[in-house]
């Protein structure tokens, strides 16, 4: 099982200059992947910006959005932006997408929460046409340079439509930052849908785990703050799931490996580099 780490881009009022420092340190430590967290209506750093910065200051580590709330974006604009990030990184980006759960993230006029699932299915086809180099805007020019590749796509979510998307048009699945007893059934459903669709091989299975080593209580408070728009029950469940300290982090590795996870990504609940250093000492 690979071990990745998130960028702290959605910690309230993060100092943006920390993002490149964190990315370089994560690559030097030997993590498999750098992940972003996505929300618009929160005082953090945009996930696409964070990934672009990480792409520019690293050369080996994988990049993934966990998750990018795709339906809040006009599709051609997002597809072009992602293609640029992937190109700058040398083809290291994986797109992790979901529908989002908070109405306040839908800030573009005319693009609301209603119908987000159908819009995502439609937009995915547009992304791929853009990445293939089809003309955009009613003209003759493509939006991306020649040689742009089709970016791998993973889906997050816990409804039947999510598993259908993975099976029909995805490369894998991203589980929520929940205990393994809640994630394992989602993995089982993904694998079942994959087989039923006649897909060869296996879907890529990625799990997320919040962690806080140096100050677990502050970490829980940060996750409660970030997740509050999802509702009190959901926010409290996510905050309670923060892995507090080195022993809990090591236990998470064992637990997720036992359920067949391909890659476990630890998402920081605190935005200090000591968290990254101590995580590396625990799991790498």
UniProtKB/TrEMBL annotation:
Key word Flavoprotein present: yes
Keyword terms: Flavoprotein, FMN, Monooxygenase, Oxidoreductase
GO BP terms: alkanesulfonate catabolic process
Domain Luciferase-like residues, every copy: 14-240
Keyword Oxidoreductase appears in the UniProt entry: yes
Name of the protein described by the UniProt record: LLM class flavin-dependent oxidoreductase
UniProt-listed InterPro entries: Luciferase-like_dom, Luciferase-like_sf, SsuD_RutA_monooxygenase
Pfam families: Bac_luciferase
A GO molecular-function descriptor: alkanesulfonate monooxygenase activity
């Amino acid at each position: 099982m690979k071990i990745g780490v998130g960028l702290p881009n959605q910690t309230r009022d993060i100092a943006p200059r920390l993002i490149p420092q964190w990315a370089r340190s994560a690559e030097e430590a030997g993590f498999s992947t750098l992940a972003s967290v996505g929300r618009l209506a929160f005082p953090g750093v945009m996930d696409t910006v964070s990934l672009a910065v990480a792409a520019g200051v690293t050369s080996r580590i994988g990049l993934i959005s966990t998750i990018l709330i795709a339906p809040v974006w006009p599709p051609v604009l997002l597809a072009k932006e992602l293609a640029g990030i992937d190109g700058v990184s040398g083809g290291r980006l994986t797109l992790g997408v979901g529908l989002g759960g908070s109405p306040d993230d839908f800030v573009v006029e005319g693009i609301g929460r209603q119908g987000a699932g159908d819009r995502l299915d439609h937009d995915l086809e547009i992304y791929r046409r853009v990445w293939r180099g089809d003309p955009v805007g009613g003209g003759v020019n493509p939006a991306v340079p020649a040689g742009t590749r089709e970016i791998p796509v993973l889906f997050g979510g816990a409804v039947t439509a999510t598993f259908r998307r993975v099976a029909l048009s995805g490369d894998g699945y991203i589980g929520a930052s929940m205990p393994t007893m809640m994630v394992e059934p989602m993995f089982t459903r993904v694998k079942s849908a994959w087989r039923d669709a006649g897909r060869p091989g296996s879907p890529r299975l990625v799990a997320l785990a919040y962690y806080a080593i140096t100050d677990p209580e502050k970490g829980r408070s940060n996750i409660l703050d970030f997740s509050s728009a999802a509702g009190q029950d959901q926010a409290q469940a996510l905050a309670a799931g923060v892995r507090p300290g080195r022993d809990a982090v090591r236990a998470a590795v064992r637990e997720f490996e036992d359920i067949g996870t391909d890659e476990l990504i630890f998402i920081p609940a605190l935005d200090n580099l000591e968290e990254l250093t101590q995580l590396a000492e625990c799991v790498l």
